[in-house]
Amino acid sequence: MTKTALITGAAKRVGKAMAIHLAAKGWNIAIHYNTSESDAKLLMEQLKSSFPGQQFALFGGNLNNAPEVETLVSRVVDAMKNVDLLINNASVFDRADFAGTDTEFLDRQMNVNFRAPFILTREYVRLAKNGLIINFADTRITNNKSNFAAYSLSKKALWEMTKMAALEFGPNIRVNAIAPGLTLPPEEKDEDYLWKLAGNIAMKRPGGLDPILKSLDYIVNNDYLTGQLLFCDGGENLGLTD
Asked: Which of 14, 35, 49, 200 has the most CB within a 10 Å radius?
């Protein structure tokens, strides 16, 4: 039976790259999106054209809305019969320091970046019985900078959840995480923005998508790996150079 992956936030950027990468390896893809419906449709048509023997389907859902999150995995299982891999990729990344974070802002960051993966993990374990979960953390979890306070805290919580879930749900469900660093520039910035930041990390260059896709393959193929975090950040988690 062809394996199926559910990727949240699959319509664009890293999520889209992982969808194409896995499809090329024979996976069916459940493409989750929220506001990027047109991008999701374009991706689905691209995948159907390139891989006509596989199954691709769209699943909308606002990860800030708990009832919509709670039904997502069951909708995918109903439509695609099995889900072998859940990738909690979607996130919101908004700047505000600790003192400048109001309650509504905090709720949105925590709901999308932590509560949604928690709910999806719970429902995945209930419905899938066997499989793999990959959570997207962030290299920021290693420091206490507060310029993205709520975002950073949500990703710290996600990493702690990864370890807790791995311990509870093994051996049938493996749970691991990837922590990207300088991967893609923000949509309003260009590649030069990443190169300037990269001057302060060990590898002195942005990583692009390739390290993430290689880490994805490593986690998928290593069936004894659980509760682990792969930093795809060129050493940024080690601290900044002078």
From this structure: 14
